Every structure is written in structure tokens, then in C-alpha cells.
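Question:
Now give any protein.
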Amino acid sequence: MSGDLVVVGAGIVGASVAYHAARAGAVVTLVDAARPGAGVTAGSFAWIGSSGVRTGPAGALRASAVDEYHRLEAELPGLPVTWSGSLSWGTTDGAPAAGPGQEIVDAATVATLEPNVAQPPEWAVWAPGDGAVDPVGVTERLVEGARAHGAQVRPDTPVTAVRRDAAGRVDGVETAAGPLSAATVVLAAGVATAALGASAGVRVPVGPSPATLFRFSAPAGLVRTLVNTQDFDLRQIAADQLIAAADSPERTLAAVRSTFRGAADVELLSSRVSARPMPADSVPIVGPVADVPGLYLAVMHPAITLAAAVGRLVARELVDGAAEPLLAGCRLDRF
């Protein structure tokens, strides 16, 4: 791959690739149809966790997520990350089981961690290393970091196709504002990656997976950790606001009010449905496309969780020519 590259998609994954590649010395142009982080990134619950996940083709990649965000915090001071830990209960039948980085806690410990829970469960799973990010804030900080290392950023510039030369090699992209030349193109455009791949003759098996995010008014300190139950994923994002990943606004509001003391006046402020990019087998698709020299893919769920790790590893593959073992199970040729 050439160090002269265009990254298509300024969500958190594309921004991370652009930052890490520019930091490694590549000549980078980051281009997006809107503003950085304005798409599906903005509608993410943004849970960052490595605990309990060790299996599958991307298990080791997922297990690195927390350490990679701590690294990124050191590189980009002021990164908006909150390490609150996560507390889960009632999500499975029977007694809970603790995975790596987790522990089983009793009702008294739950009451200490979440003092406003009305009826603490007998048992819960506590993952003290988990956290969450402001996904748009992290994306913007990554873009700032990419710019500081010389990257050009072109927002509000829709990419319409991948360009190939007479020999079939990538030589840039077509945009609504005209062509952009580059020897390497990274498609990190979420669900749009499928159509852009098709423009280069490549089938990328990724489609939309709807995800709903609710925002609620809330008293300060109502929720202390990241709470995961059968009704919602819930966390406090400001002194007067909560966000929840769930399915129904009415059921979620009722569950919040019944789960926490002092939540009687919680009200729904807004809801947002986002189309998460979901590969056909739910495993990230990351790596070069063998049949189209110069084309590289980076599309996945959970994108927020994996962005710090994937950005660094992709940059190493692009700039240094390394074949990263953590990405070995994520290649397109598995389909």
C-alpha cells in the first residue's frame, strides 16, 4: 500500500485511521459527505469494554479495546472518555457468570455502586475497567490530531465512486466536488461502504442494523456507572441528562422510573435511530482487497469500541506494510 491515501468516511473509525496514518507519516486526505462524527457515530451509546470478550475471530481485537483507549488518551490529552465501570444484571436466565475482567457482586455492593437503585438485584456482574466516550467529541479530537500531523480534511464532500486505472489499480475517488487522486483508498464509510465497494467491482457484505438511542432528562447523580439490564443500556452523560440504548421509548421510560429512586420526573427528550454497519457475520471487515490493488476496507460493529485499536493497526498495515495478527480473522476473503 502507498502512504498517499484517501480515507472515505469521517466517522470515528475513519477519523482514527486518518489520525494514526498521518501520525505514522502518511499523506492523508479524510473526506466525508457530512461533518466528522455526524452520522451513525453520533447515534452510538459508545460503551467501551474489553471485559468478558475473548472468543471469535475478533475476540483478541475486542479484548484490546480498553488498553487502546488508554493509549489514545495519553496521545490526545483531553479525550472525552469516562471510566465509570459497567454493572449488568437480569440479562440472562439463571446465575450470572463472570468473564475476564469481571466479578460477581452481591446486592450490598450493587447498592454501593448504584445507591439509587430501588431494588438491588441479588447478583450482578461488575466490570470496573469499562467506560464510555463522547463519540462525536472523540471523533473531532481524532480529526484535530490528524490535521496536526498534516492531514487534509474535506467535510461536506460526498464520495460517489472509487476510481481505478487501466490496469485495475485504485487511483483515487470521484466526489461531488471532483476527483481526488490517491494510490490507496480506505473505505470506512459505514453502510455506504457496500455501494462504494460495488463501484470498484467488490462485494462488501455489510448492511444496516437499526439502533435506537433515547435521551432523557434526569436529576444529577441518578446513575453512577454504565447500567446494563434486560430493559436498557443506560448511562448519565451530563448533570441533567441520561442516554439509553433500548427499543421502546415508553417501556424504557417506565423501566428507568421503576429501577431508580428519584426518577419519577425523568422525561424523554429525544430519540434517534441510526443505521449501524453490520457485516453479514457480525465480524469486522478490515484489510486490503486482493482483487483491487490499493483498496482497503474498514467497516465494523461495534465501531466505537474498536476504533482506537483498529485505527492503529490499519495504519501499521498501510504505512509499514505489516500484517497485523489481530486483524487476521477480519479479512474480506473469508466470505
Summary: The chain has a mean pLDDT of 95.
